[in-house]
């Protein structure tokens, strides 16, 4: 039971990380050099989203197995 709770917590954290990544992709301030900021934040956001997705996939497979 403790393992399942741990995995559900990981799943939740993974989803939060994914949401944070998606938020990073879509938020930027529109001052000078905003294109660079979009690219920079976008790449960080995509990385964070992928990390979150990885956590979700690992914990969901752990829940099944």
Question: What can you tell me about this protein's structure?
Answer:
With 65 residues, the protein is an all-alpha fold. The protein has one domain. The protein is built from two helices and no strands. α1 runs antiparallel to α2 (34-64). It is elongated and about 50 Å long. The protein starts with a helix and ends with a helix.
Secondary structure topology:
Blueprint: H1 2-26, H2 34-64
- Largest sheet composition: none
Q: Per DSSP, what share of the residues sits in E-state strands of 2 or more residues?
A: under 5%
Task: Indicate the multimeric state.
Answer: single chain
Structural class: mainly alpha
Radius of gyration: 15 Å
Instruction: Give the overall form.
Output: elongated
| Overall pLDDT confidence | 76
How many H/I helices?
2
Helix content: over 70%
Number of domains: 1
Extended strand count: 0
What is the CA-CA span between the terminal residues?
Answer: 13 Å
Low-confidence parts lasting 5 or more residues at pLDDT below 50? none
Listing every helix as H and every strand as E from the N terminus to the C terminus, the arrangement reads HH
